[in-house]
Amino acid sequence: MATNLDNQLLNRNDRDGVTGTDSAAQKLSGSETAGAQPQPSLREAVLAEKRRRIMKERKEAQVSVQSGVAGAIASPMQAATSRLLRQSWLHLVDSFGLTLLWINVHVFLKMILGEKVFCKLGDEWKIGLPAGDNVKAPKMTGLAEAMALGALDLLAVCVLIFAFSVVAMIVGVVSNPLEVIKSILGSLWGSVTGSK
User: Fold this and answer.
1) Is the pLDDT of residue 37 over 80?
2) Are the beta carbons of 103 and 118 closer than 8 angstroms?
3) Strand segments (E) across the chain
4) 71 near 132, Cβ under 8 Å?
5) Considering only 13-27, 64-78, 104-118, which range has the smallest mean pLDDT?
6) Going by C-beta distance under 8 Å and a sequence separation of 6 or more, which residues neighbour residue 53?
7) Which structural domain range is residue 137 located in?
């Protein structure tokens, strides 16, 4: 039966004027002369589709980096500085507030160098998340961090003023001890007798 099918196919090709030695390439070249464009080979089609997909992924990556969407692929420098900022917030208490220096430097450098290198406050929690992660960072994180940073900076200034005033008092006592003793005894005597 298989030979019968082969014979039928060969006979049909002979009737149409195509011999067994004619190839599809000859038919294709005949259609090219008629003005029709040749269809690309399978390999060319696969490569073209691969190029198209890569270009689409690059455009999507650029859009996601620019929009700051969670899970976006950021520049390596921005990813590194955002990890540093995240670690600074996490280790603020156990470093006795010294990481507040880096947080302030980060905010200052973001104003100078821009957001391509240093992320906004609040975005350090979003960068590096997997793209399909369902964990959503709150939208007000940046505002909350800015307010916390302002309060912590104010607290740090108060602590510095208190520390410098204590040092100034110690220096005053060491440099002129008799005057300090006289003023202390005078205020004690005034409180005991009720006079100033």
Assistant:
1) no
2) no
3) none
4) yes
5) 13-27
6) none
7) 69-193
87 belongs to a structural domain: yes
The residues near 81 (Cβ < 8 Å, ≥ 6 apart) are 106, 117, 118, 119
Report which of 139, 114, 111, 115 is spatially closest to residue 125, judged by C-alpha positions.
139
**DSSP conformation class of 118:** S
Global confidence as pTM: 0.52
Question: Is position 102 within any domain?
Answer: yes
Q: What is the 3-state secondary structure (H, E, C) of 76-96?
A: HHHHHHHHHHHHHHHCCCCCC
Number of domains in the chain: 1
Kindly tell me the sign of the dihedral angle through the C-alpha atoms of 183, 189, 191, 196. Answer: negative
Residue whose pair of structure tokens reads 């240093």 in the numeric block: 118
Q: What is the Cα–Cα distance from 102 to 100, expressed in whole angstroms?
A: 5
Confidence of residue 71 (pLDDT cuts 50, 70, 90): very low
Q: Both ends of the chain: CA-CA distance in Å?
A: 131
Structure tokens at 58: 């690059």
Q: Give the C-alpha separation, 177 to 184, whole Å.
A: 11
